[in-house]
Amino acid sequence: MKGDMGADPEAWENPAHSRATPTSRPSPVELLLQVGVSLHAALMVDSHGRIVWMDPVLAGAAGWRSGSPVGRSAAEVLGGLPWLWRGLEEALTGTDGLCEDGGGEQRLRAVVVPVFGEDGTQLGACARLRMSELPRPEAAGDSQALCAGAVEERRAREHLEHQTSLLRATFDSITDGVIVVDLARRITAFNKRFQEMWGLTDAMLEDRDAEKALASVESRVTAPGRFIAFIRQGFEPSFAPRSSIVELRDGRVLECKSIPQLLGDAVIGRIWSYRDVTAERKALAEQARLLAAEHEARERLEESFAVLDTFLNHAPVALGFIGRNLRYLLGNDALAAIHGGRRGEESGRTVREMTPQMAPIIEPLMRQVLEEGTPIIGLNMTGEVPSSPGEQRHWNVSYYPVRTASGTILGVGAVVADITAEYRAQSERDRLLREAQEAIRVRDDFMSVAAHEMKTPLTPLKLHLQMLKGQADAGHVVAPRHVDKALAQLTRLSVLVNDLLDTSRIQAGKMEFAREPTSLRELILEVLSVFRGTSSLHSLGFEAPDEPLVVMGDRARLAQVLTNLVENALKYSPTGGAVRVTARRMGTEVCVSVKDEGIGIPKEEQAHLFERFFRARNAPISGFGGLGLGLYISRDIIERHGGRIWVESEVEHGSTFHFVLPCL
Ligand code: ADP
Fold first, then answer.
1. Which residue puts its alpha carbon closest to atom 14 of ligand 1?
2. pTM score, two decimals?
3. Which residue is closest in CA terms to ligand 1's atom 11?
4. Contact at 8 Å (CB) between 357 and 385?
């Protein structure tokens, strides 16, 4: 061997040392390996003749059975193939060579070439083997072939050196940490990133011992047992790619992948790459956490919505949420009922579309809430809605501003309670109360009027009776005028009492009639005859066709009606005037009218004239007594005879009372 073969033993003994920086040149051993690989060499030896790599088949063929031949002397390992050792020895002197085995049908031929570094130093030699059955070539031919082969090999080597430097730079610049371990568990290559990732110094890797390196990182992983088992499995020759996740105690997570290192078809070791996936994992974990949180939030939201929905729809009042554009966003069943539709139909539709009649009232109120941000609470409203056309309904309404957490007003919350039933009940109660109060007032009025009316005839009656007694006591002849006047007062009293009795009979439904064919013409004349001469202020007139105008009726009761009407005509014409009674046939009926020129009756009171105890407000002013029973009794008598009674009157212009009865 040449003296410079061992020129750089450090490079072999401590190849890591030669790669202090990622851009440093490959070690002699690495260069040898790279050249050998490119030549498909079955055997590589360094400049000292120590095996750098050897095809296991070749090792077997050489009779080597003592484990990995790497690092051993080629002379020792190639004991069974001395011709090959001789070829190598030749090559280690810097000469290309060709050697082959000596006998047998199949010949084993090897091309052995020296490998030089860039500085011209010989790094070692490689042998490429080939089986051949061809006849052995002539010596001269061999020599020419060897020369051609040497030129070719040099070109290849130069090309490879260039490629190698590129690969080395690439190897050191990649972000994954990479380590290559051979079958003897020796570290054949690693990059800077691998060192950084595992915190391995050059000194720690100096021995190139994979087990030692493994021991020094064992404490850094969270599950050392599993990690070591995984790595050791990879030390066994296998074609299968492997991968695993390694968690470090400092929180980092590394993704580990390993693939076999092949030489030809043979596995010569394993390439391990580590990628720091901590950030990726954290991002994934964070993403999963966010997804879970979002899922949870969505579920909470859905729960809240379900609860809200239940509350909304079982609320006894109508609830709605209206956006700033006065369009409904949400409403419950009760609100839909007011709108005359189904829940959800109002969504997106305007207040005006849903309640056109109420919109002119509602819209300004909602706008006020949106602008001022203050609620309007407990407003009573009356109106019509589509669900009950033509019907006035009543609501108690509140509008609230609905705000975001930051205070922005999103819309209006409406709470509408239908109080129609309560309102109507209250109205009915009010009406009944008013009626009761009116009845009490009427009764009180009646009591005082009745007392007054009863008392009025008693005073003159007492006076006339006292005078009669005085005349009788004195032995004088009793004056008939006192008797007549006393009797007149008695008649007046009995009329009052009879009216009261008739009223209670009518109330009890016990008024009885003795019907008979009765000529109204005759009856009117009879009644008028009673009044003739009773008033000097009035003129009494009668007008009727010649026919008798017969009706089926109670003569006395019909006379009572006529008497009451004529009496009233005289009574309510205090300044006198004509009182005219007419009777005429109208189809199948007879119509009797009593007309006067008296005080008349206010229009608005005419409808109540025939009610019990009713007296027009101008009657007492005129100073005329009365209980307000005569017309009430008259109406009952006429209606019980199948007729009708009514009045036409104008204040200060007299009155005309008409009644009709079916004619026989
Ligand atoms: P009374 O005359 O005893 O008050 P009525 O029942 O006969 O009771 O009449 C009821 C009321 O009708 C009277 O109080 C009076 O106000 C009004 N009235 C009846 N007849 C006339 C009339 N001819 N002219 C004006 N008012 C009348």
1. 615
2. 0.45
3. 615
4. yes
**Residue to mutate (ligand 1; options 503, 568, 594; most atoms within 8 A of CB):** 568
**CA-based radius of gyration for the chain:** 67
d(CA 551, CA 565): 19
Q: What is the three-class DSSP state of 664? A: coil
Rounded Cα distance, 167 and 173, in Å: 10
Question: DSSP for 80-104?
Answer: G-HHHHHHHHHHTTT--EEEE---S
Q: List pocket residues of ligand 1, CB cut-off 6 Å.
A: 564, 568-569, 572, 596, 598-601, 609, 615-616, 619, 626-632, 655
Place of tokens 């239908």: 418
Counting every residue, how long is the chain?
Answer: 664
Residue with tokens 């031919």: 141
3-state SS, one letter per residue, for 384-435: CCCCCCCCCEEEEEEEEEEECCCCCEEEEEEEEEECHHHHHHHHHHHHHHHH
Reported as half-sphere exposure (CB side, CA atoms, 13 A), residue 312 has a value of: 19
What is the H or E stretch that residue 371 is in?
Answer: helix 359-372
What's the pLDDT tens digit per position in 225-284? Answer: 999 999 999 888 889 999 999 999 999 999 999 999 887 778 888 999 999 999 999 999
- In angstroms, what is the span from residue 567 Cα to ligand 1's centroid? 9
